[in-house]
Amino acid sequence: MIDTTSDTSAPWPTDLHLDQAAKTLSLTFDNGEHFVLTAEYLRVESPSAEVQGHGGDQKKIVPSKRTVGISNLEPVGNYAVRLLFDDGHDTGLFTWTYLRELGLTHAEKWDTYLKALAHRGLSRD
Questions:
Q1: CA 101 to CA 3: how far, in whole Å?
Q2: Residue 33 has what DSSP assignment?
Q3: Which of 4, 59, 68, 103 is deepest in the core (most CB within 10 A)?
């Protein structure tokens, strides 16, 4: 995980756009980084304890989220956003640092998720 909580020079979001039809969240940072993250990816990588566990190596593999969408965004102070998913999940706070990490490590995290699904005989559908 990228830790920029104490780094005042960490990139700051300048634009956040939810496209409910495309089921994507677009983020642009002041350093020019731009990421388009699917609702499915955000749901299966939610920072909530339900997904990440309560510490250590307890991450849960969340299947059957291919069609999940984001119904709403709720700002949390000036450091995060709560994503309300249309499957009822709404407990994770996505900090700007974590959203940036998800963008930077998308290929690696997505590949790990797909392999974990296959290993367990689970599906995205």
A1: 9
A2: -
A3: 68
Q: Where are the beta strands (DSSP E) in the chain?
A: 13-19, 24-29, 34-38, 70-76, 80-85, 93-95
- Global confidence as pTM: 0.90
For the chain, the domain total comes to 1
What is the per-residue pLDDT across 67-119, written as a single tens digit (0 to 9) for each?
999 999 999 999 999 999 999 999 989 999 999 999 999 999 999 999 999 99
AA letter at 8: T
- The whole domain housing 52 covers 13-120
Predicted confidence band at 57 (pLDDT cuts at 50, 70, 90)?
confident
Q: Is 89 among the domain residues? A: yes
Per-position b or e across 98-124, b if 16+ CB within 10 A of its CB = bbbbbbeebeeebeebeebbeeeeeee
Residue-level pLDDT at 1: 41
Pairing of strands 80-85, 93-95: antiparallel
First and final C-alpha spacing in the chain: 28
CATH of the domain at 34: 3.30.2020.30
